[in-house]
Each structure stands twice: as C-alpha cells, then as structure tokens.
Amino acid sequence: MAKMKFFLLYQFHYINKNKTWTEAQQYCREKHTDLATVTNMKDMKRLNNISAGYQSEAWIGLISKPAFTRTWFWSLPGVEFSESETNWNPGEPNDGGNQGSENCVIVNKNLSWIDNSCQTPNHFICYNDKKTWQEAQSYCRENHTDLISGTKQLQDGAVKNVMDSRSDYSHIGLFRDTWRWSDISSFSFRHWNNDFNYPESNSGQCATTVFNDGGRWTNVDCDNKKPFICYEDKVILIKENKTWEDALTYCRDHYHDLVTITNMDDQRWIQEKVKNASTPFVWIGLHYIWSLRFWVWVSDEEVSYENWASPGQMGDCDVSGAMETGGGHKWFKRNDSDLFNFICSKK
After folding, report:
1. Contact in structure between 247 and 338 (CB atoms under 8 Å)
2. Do residues 320 and 244 touch, judged by C-beta distance below 8 A?
3. CA distance 177 to 180
4. How far apart are CA 205 and CA 66, in angstroms?
5. Is-contact 161 15, C-beta < 8 A?
6. Measured between alpha carbons, how far is 4 from 246 in angstroms, rounded to an integer?
7. Of 10, 235, 261, 338, which is most buried, counting CB atoms within 10 Å of its CB?
C-alpha cells in the first residue's frame, strides 16, 4: 500500500494586529490570499488551534451589507440550492407576510417546505427534541453531520417514515441570509453563537470568531479594530488548455503537482475553484495505470475517496481523471490528449 501523504489545500494565519475588517481584508489579500473562509467544523477546530494563547476575537471573511440580496442556502456545505428543485407548500415562502423575518425552513408531514422564524423551536430530523433552528444545526453538526440538506436527502424513504410518525413540523437545513464571503465563494457554512438573532439582524455587519466561546461567531460593526485570520490558498486554477501530461509538467515546474483530492472537504474546496474554469473539465492528478488496472494519484496518495460520475470506473490506455466544471463536479475519465484547464497544488 502506498504511504499516506497529507497536503492541506489551504492554511490559516492568525494576524495579531488590530485592524478594521476592510483593513484586514486588504492585508490578507496583499500578504496571503484573503480573510479566512470557513467551510466546515474541521476548519473551526483549526481556527481554535491557531488561536491558542489569544483570549480575544478575530475577524473572518464574512460580511453582510444592505445591498446584498437575501439568498437561500443549504446548511450542509457543498449542497447548492436550486430554484428548479424546490417543494414549497402553496403560498410559500411568504416571509411572514413580507415582514422579512422568516429565514429558516420547516417541513410538514407531506415534506412540503414552509418558511419560518429561525427562533421558533421545532423538532428536527436528526433528533427527537425541540430546538431553535440554530440550536438544531449545532446539535446535528456536533453529533451527526448536519441538518438534512438537499432535495435528494429529503426524498429518502427514511425521512418520510420519520415524518409520518409526527403531527407537527421539523426544521430542515435550508436558510437564507445576506452574508457573503470575502473571496466570493459560495460556501454556506455558518457557526453563529446561540445568542445571535440568526439570521435576521445581520445587515451592515462583519463576523468575528470568539475564541473563548468555542470559536462561535458574532456580528459586530466592521469599523471596530480587531486581530484577524487570513487564509493562504495552496491550490491554483491554471486557465491554460493543456494535455494531462503537459499539465502535470507545468504544475511540477511552477508549483508542486497536479492536485490530489483525499476527502469530501477537499472536493468541495476544489469545486469552488473549477467554477471559474474556461473548459468543461479540469485535469486533476488522477491517472489510470493500464498495466495494473487501477487508478493512482500522482502524489502516491491512496485512492480512498472517489467522486466518479458513475461507480466502478475502469480506465483505458492513456486516460486520466478530470472534474466537470459544472453540474455536480463529478470525476470523469478523459483521454490524455484532451486540452483542459487544470488545478495545481502549491508547496
């Protein structure tokens, strides 16, 4: 078995200088990549680890402005909301009679969606208790994965069986807000503290992570001066069209290697990058060894995580792995001579 190697696709840097959010954003963009984008609970643990010894709060790259349009998000990172795949109850979403206060979603026994106040206690799918939407999200993330997210999960027969046993409503992982990440990524992950009026009073504010509160976030005026956390991107999209071998050579000459994807979090990070590609696919560091009949990563990492468009992909002579830049960002085998953009990893 190949020796396991682990490469972080991005790194966090705690900057112990007091700056406004805008000043912090400018510093991060000049010195690193941008203010920290937080994609999952693993990221939160990493933030807490680098903050050891600092009993304060720090800016992250989340900002809300009155000009931002409220947008629906699924709580589970990587699941994108689609207006064409909804199941709203007739007359919904009605936003509480246009009061602008119903930003979370519950489902009835028929699994129809109803917008509702995020502060109203309801049952939720992963636990038989009543909590607010924020409390339910926190519980699910700490004890399972997340609140149920996406139409495919909601169509699961087990969910229907759970709802058939209930006479009331349950939270699902659909919410809307006006918050945006500084790097313009679409990650839906939020980690507000339980006292935050989520997400109803969030305009004209910036987010901080509070270290003595487990890293949970609060919103404050962007003109306050605080330390901040930058992230350094360890991957880069090259918008040049090359064969797989030429892409591999380019990455090794200019950066480190073609990118290796070892888990779902890596996949979600790369998905954000490939959205900006100019070709329908991008090369990744996955190659098929015809003589041995199996796929390998150019980094010698074991192919344990897979995201093929169809399971059990068998290769052919002179084929390699590419990720689609749209749709579900699945992996496809493509002829090595095809010309695509590609993703390099940095040292």
Report:
1. no
2. yes
3. 9
4. 9
5. no
6. 26
7. 261
Q: Considering its fold, how many domains does the chain have in total?
A: 3
- Of 119 and 256, which is predicted with more confidence? 256
Token pair 């090794």 is at which residue?
252
Residue 91 backbone zone (phi > 0: left; psi -120 to 50: alpha; other: beta): left
Backbone angles phi, psi at 107, to 5 degrees: -125, 150
Residue-number span of the structural domain to which 57 is assigned: 10-67+179-232
- How far apart (Å, rounded) are the C-alpha atoms in residues 194 and 200? 13
Bridge partner list, 170: 107, 123
Cβ-contact 321, 331 below 8 angstroms: yes
Above 60 in pLDDT, residue 264?
yes
- Same structural domain, 205 and 60: yes
Within 10 angstroms of residue 108's Cβ, the number of other Cβ atoms is 15
CATH of the domain at 310: 3.10.100.10
Q: Say if residue 139 is in the same domain as residue 39.
A: no
**Interval 303-336: pLDDT, tens:** 889 999 987 667 678 899 999 999 889 999 999 9
Residue 3, domain member (yes or no): no
